[in-house]
Structure formats: C-alpha cells, structure tokens
Specification:
The protein has 292 residues and is of the alpha+beta class. The protein has two domains: 3-126, Beta-Lactamase, CATH 3.30.450; 146-281, PAS domain (Beta-Lactamase, 2-Layer Sandwich). The protein is built from ten helices and eleven strands. Strands 6, 7, 8, 9, 10 and 11 form a six-stranded mixed beta sheet that branches. A five-stranded antiparallel beta sheet has the order 2-1-5-4-3. Strand 9 and strand 10 (249-261) form a beta hairpin.
Length: 292
Amino acid sequence: MGSEKREYIKISKEKYHILVNSIVDVIVELDSDGTFTFVNSRFFDLFGYQPEEIIRMKAFNFVHPEDLPKIAKKMNDAIYSREIIEAVYRSRHKDGHYILVQARGGMYNDNGNIKYIGLIRDITTQKKASQKIKESQENYKELCKMLEQKVSETTIDFKESEKKFRHLFETSPFAIFLLKFIGIIIDCNSVAERLFNLKKDEMIGRNFLELAAFPSKVYSKIENAYKKLCRGDKINPIDIQIYTKDGELIWVNVINTLVKLHNEILIQVIIQDISERKLTEKAPQPSEQEIP
C-alpha cells in the first residue's frame, strides 16, 4: 500500500472519529446477537458507562424487563426485513435508574457479519412536555364539561335576542369585550377603543391580559375572577386600577359574565371608568361644624 493511500486512510479515520464523537446522539453497533461492538463517547454522557466498559456486553441486559420482549421482536424483524426500525424503551443507567430513550437504526452486512447500527436519544424531557400538554388538554375538556353542566345557571343566552344584544353592545356607555376561554379578544365596542386608546383591530386576536394596561398586583385579582368564572361560580364586580395607553392610572369597575352566542360560550367583560367616583370617595368630607 502506497504512503499516499495510507495517509488518506489515516486522515479518513481521524475525520470519522471526530464526526462520530461530535454527534449529540449515542451511536451503537451490535452483533446480530445483541453484543456491543462499538459505542461513541456520548454513551458515557447518557448512561454513565465508558465505551471500553460496554464492548462485548449484551445490549439486552440494559433494557427494562417489561420492554425486553418488544425490543427483541423489533431486532428480529430488522434482521429479516433489513428496514430501518424505531423503538421507545427504558434503558438502565450505570447507577441503576432507567432512562426513557428512542432508538432508530437498521441492519447492515459487514464482510459477511450481520450487524445493527443505530442512534439512541434521551426523550425523557420530551415525554414530560408531551404529558403536560396532554394533561392541560384533559383539564380543558373537564372544564368544558363543568361549564356545560352549569351553563343554564350562569350563562346569559342571547340566542333569541341577538340583535338586542348587539344593539346594547354597541350603544353601551361602558367598555365591553368578548373573550374566548383562553382569554383571546374576539370583539369589543367603541367605548373600549376610547378607554384603552387602541383601535379594535389592534386588540382583536390579542390576549386580554396582554393589553399592557394592568399593574402587576392586579393580575391575581383578574386570575381569581377568571378561575371562579370557569368553575361556574357567580362573581362580584371588582374595582381595579389600569393604565391607559398614555400611561395614566385610572380606576375601573369590572364585571365578568358568561354569554352564549352562536352556540359558543364566551366571557363578557364590562368595564366602567369610576375614577371620578374614587376621587369623590377620597376627598375629605366636611365636619358637622362646617355644614351651614
């Protein structure tokens, strides 16, 4: 073999080594009986074993007993089909705990020897996130069921008088918002535009709490009112302070109710500016001696 060819092979091996150990996933190579013949350095990061500790050991010994039949069948199928296989299972760490992983790979012929090469990835965080989303969805479904049960008691149904509702909505002296249950504004009247000094198309589609008009201490009051409303509880009007677009801090009275329009349950928020009333309440009252 010429010196140039040997140098080329040496450089190729070095590049291969760098590439294999820079991949974020674990790379494994197994004999057809499941014996480790190669692992990259990432194996230690995920499972706590140095590569030299693992070589010649059986991969199946690290699979959770409950997942072993599934993995054995997957490997057997791969031998005969020669197709890429994927599997999710629990693999044991060196300290004894199990890690949820996803493996993807297939069989290849190495000079007459059938071998498996695959990538292994830790999906614990991904699984937890998916579970959290699923739980949130289930909670939302339960919330909807709860609301349906209480809708006759707590919801104003404007099905028979929608025109009247629309007239009151537009001519009300108070700011009115219609929200979906996730807090997204789907409509508001002209008084709301004037109160917040924003155009309707600037507010529709935004979350009500993202109008940047609420001091931080007010959020807890709004969230508590929202939770009560979602449970179908009757809630009393609340007095809070909000910022206008110009930065002025004003007092408002907020009433939250459920309304039913087009067979959809929505949150109706009615806001009345009570700044003058609050100023009157704070103004010093004349004593009896001062009353003529």
